[in-house]
Amino acid sequence: MAEARPGRIRLGPPDLLGDRTVVPVVAGRHHLVLVRDAGRIVAAERACPHEGADLSLGHCAGGRLRCPRHLASFDLHDGSVSPGWSFRALRLFPVEVEAGGLWLTLDGSLA
């Protein structure tokens, strides 16, 4: 059974996403999306860095999260935006899947 440790927040049960690929969550005071892609789960900031569109309304395919407003997409390994767009990368945060739940690991940009 996993235990809470400093720098980690329990997001919910391991099956929190159910059959969905993109789910909005709140971790502390931070609004994020959980994204499942190819058997892994990653957390990302919920607001698109371009104009703040709600990425929980986007969709994921081929390792990319697509913004529902402008159709820019973000690489789920490094957050980089698709070619043709000139704004910062999407912030991503590691998620650990354990028997006791999904855990978000905080870093300096989210803490």
TrEMBL record:
Does the record carry Metal-binding as a key word? Answer: yes
- GO MF: 2 iron, 2 sulfur cluster binding; metal ion binding
Q: Which InterPro entries match?
A: Rieske_2Fe-2S (IPR017941), Rieske_2Fe-2S_sf (IPR036922)
Q: Does the keyword Iron apply?
A: yes
CC cofactor: [2Fe-2S] cluster
> Which key words are in the record?
2Fe-2S, Iron, Iron-sulfur, Metal-binding
User: What protein name does the entry list?
Assistant: Rieske (2Fe-2S) protein
Q: Which organism is it from?
A: Methylobacterium oryzihabitans
| Family matches, as CDD domains | Rieske
Per the record, the domain of life is: Bacteria
The family note in this entry says:
Belongs to the bacterial ring-hydroxylating dioxygenase ferredoxin component family.
Which parts of the sequence belong to the Rieske domain?
8-104
